[in-house]
C-alpha cells in the first residue's frame, strides 16, 4: 500500500540520517530515487535546490514533496510523520539516558565513526548530481561528446567562490541558476 | 509555538533557538540549551526537529514535544505542498527548465564544498580508522550500490564495537 511504503521509506530516512543537514541527502536519494523510483535524479536535485531556498530541514521538505506528489496531501502528512516519529522518540530517549549517565561514550563513538561514513555517502550523492549535470547521466562517463563543459565550468567556479568567500549556498545556487539559465536558453 | 525560519536548515536553528528561548524568553538556561543542542545533533533525524522536541519536552513534557514537532514541521509542510502542486506545471516551462539545469551545478558545488570541509576536519585528526571508514563506505555505496541503510547500520555497529574496545584499553581509534 502506497501510504505504508511512504511511511516506511521516510521512517528509515528519519532514523538513519545522522549528522543533520546534508546527511539526509544520500538516504533520500537511495530510498526515493534508487529503490522506489518516486523521483528521477533530476527531480531530486530540483528538490534539493528548492529545499535550500525554503525554510525547514531537507528531510521534512522531501517528505512533504514526495508524499504529496505520489499520494496527495494525506501522502505528505504520512511521509512527514514517518520522518519525524522515530527521531523524536530517539532524541527523547537519548536525552533521558544523558541525564542519567552524563557520559555516553558509545554514542559518542558511534557518532565519531559515522561521521566519515556520512561524508562518503554525501560525496557519492554529490558525484551523481555532478555527473548528471555534466554528462546527463548518473554515472561519470569519460567521452568528450557528452560532456557539458559549461556545466563543468559553472561547478568549478561555484566551488571556488564558496571555498574562497564562504558565501551562503542559496546565493550560489540562485546565481548558477540565473547564469546557467541564460546560457542554456541561448544555446 | 515555534516558527521554522531556518533557511538553509541545519545548525542555524540551534543559534536561533538559543536567542529566542534563552535570551528572550528565559525558558531554559544557557548550559542546558547547549546540552540539548549536542543531543539534538547526535541523534538521527533533522537537527531542527530534534532540538524542538527536546525543548518542548523540557518545558511541557509530552504535550510540549508534540506541539513543538507540529510547530516545526508545519511551515515546510505547507510551503512544500504548495510547491509540489505547481512544480509539474513549472517544469514544463522552458525558462524554468534552463534555470533548474543551471541550479543543478550550484547544488553540486555546494555539496562538494560540504564534503571538502567535513573530510578536511576528519583527515586533520590523522587517525587511520576514520579514513578506512570513508573509503569503505564510498566503495560500498558508490561502487557496489549497497543500500545506504545497511552501510550506516554496519558502520554504526562497527564504531560501537571499536569504542567499547577503546574504552577498555584506554586508546582512541575514532
Features:
heterodimer, A: 187 residues, mainly alpha, globular, B: 174 residues, 6 helices, 81% helix, flat
Task: Give a structural overview.
The complex is a heterodimer of chains A (187) and B (174). With 187 residues, chain A is an all-alpha fold. Chain A has a domain of 102 residues. Chain A has seven helices and no strands. The longest helix of chain A has 44 residues. Chain A is globular and about 60 Å long. The termini of chain A are far apart. Chain B is mostly helical. Chain B has a domain of 92 residues. Chain B has six helices and no strands. In chain B, helix 5 runs antiparallel to helix 6. The longest helix of chain B has 46 residues. In chain B, 42% of the residues are buried. Classes of the chains: A mainly alpha (187), B mainly alpha (174). At the A-B interface, helix 1, helix 2, helix 3, helix 4 and helix 5 of A face helix 2, helix 3, helix 4, helix 5 and helix 6 of B.
Quaternary status:
heterodimer
Question: Could you give the distance between the termini of chain A?
Answer: 45 Å
Output the helix-strand order of chain A. Answer: HHHHHHH
Task: Summarize the biggest pleated sheet of chain B.
Answer: none
Helix content of chain B: over 70%
Look at the helices and sheets of chain B and give the structural class: mainly alpha
**pLDDT averaged residue by residue of chain A:** 88
Q: Helix tally of chain A?
A: 7
Low-confidence parts of chain B, pLDDT < 50 over ≥5 residues?
Answer: 1-11
> Radius of gyration of chain A from the CA trace?
19 Å
Could you state the order of secondary-structure elements of chain B as H and E? Answer: HHHHHH
Extract low-pLDDT stretches of chain A.
none
Amino acid at each position: 500500500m502506497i501510504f505504508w511504503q511512504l511511511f516506511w521509506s521516510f521512517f528509515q530516512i528519519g532514523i538513519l540520517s545522522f549528522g543533520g543537514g546534508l546527511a539526509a541527502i544520500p538516504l533520500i536519494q537511495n530510498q526515493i530515487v534508487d529503490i522506489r523510483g518516486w523521483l528521477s535524479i533530476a527531480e531530486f536535485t530540483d528538490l534539493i535546490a528548492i529545499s535550500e531556498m525554503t525554510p525547514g530541514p531537507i528531510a521534512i521538505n522531501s517528505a512533504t514533496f514526495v508524499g504529496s506528489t505520489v499520494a496527495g496531501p494525506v501522502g505528505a502528512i504520512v511521509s512527514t510523520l514517518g520522518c519525524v516519529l522515530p527521531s523524536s522518540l530517539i532524541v527523547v530517549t537519548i536525552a533521558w539516558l544523558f541525564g542519567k549517565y552524563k557520559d555516553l561514550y558509545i554514542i559518542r563513538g558511534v557518532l565519531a565513526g559515522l561521521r566519515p561514513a556520512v561524508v562518503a555517502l554525501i560525496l557519492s550523492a554529490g558525484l551523481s548530481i555532478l555527473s548528471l549535470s555534466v554528462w546527463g547521466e548518473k554515472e561519470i562517463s569519460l567521452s568528450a561528446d557528452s560532456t557539458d563543459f559549461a556545466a563543468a565550468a559553472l561547478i568549478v567556479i561555484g566551488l571556488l567562490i564558496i571555498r574562497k568567500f564562504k558565501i551562503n549556498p542559496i546565493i550560489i545556487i540562485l546565481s548558477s541558476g540565473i547564469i546557467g539559465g541564460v546560457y542554456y536558453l541561448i544555446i | 509555538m515555534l516558527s521554522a525560519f531556518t533557511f538553509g536548515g541545519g545548525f542555524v536553528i540551534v543559534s536561533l533557538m538559543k536567542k529566542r528561548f534563552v535570551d528572550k524568553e528565559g525558558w531554559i538556561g544557557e548550559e542546558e540549551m547547549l546540552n540539548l543542542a549536542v543531543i539534538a545533533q547526535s541523534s538521527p533525524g533533522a537537527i531542527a526537529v530534534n532540538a524542538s522536541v527536546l525543548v518542548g519536552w523540557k518545558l511541557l513534557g509530552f504535550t510540549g514535544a508534540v506541539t513543538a514537532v507540529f510547530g516545526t514541521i508545519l511551515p515546510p509542510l505547507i510551503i512544500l505542498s504548495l510547491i509540489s502542486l505547481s512544480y509539474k506545471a513549472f517544469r514544463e516551462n522552458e525558462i524554468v527548465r534552463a534555470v533548474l539545469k543551471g541550479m543543478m551545478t550550484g547544488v553540486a558545488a555546494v555539496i562538494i564544498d560540504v564534503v571538502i570541509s567535513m573530510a578536511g576536519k576528519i583527515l586533520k585528526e590523522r587517525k587511520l580508522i576514520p579514513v578506512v571508514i570513508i573509503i569503505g563506505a564510498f566503495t560500498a555505496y558508490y561502487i557496489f550500490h549497497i543500500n545506504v541503510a545497511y552501510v550506516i547500520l554496519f558502520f554504526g555497529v562497527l564504531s560501537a564495537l571499536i569504542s567499547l574496545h577503546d574504552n577498555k584499553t584506554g586508546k582512541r581509534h575514532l
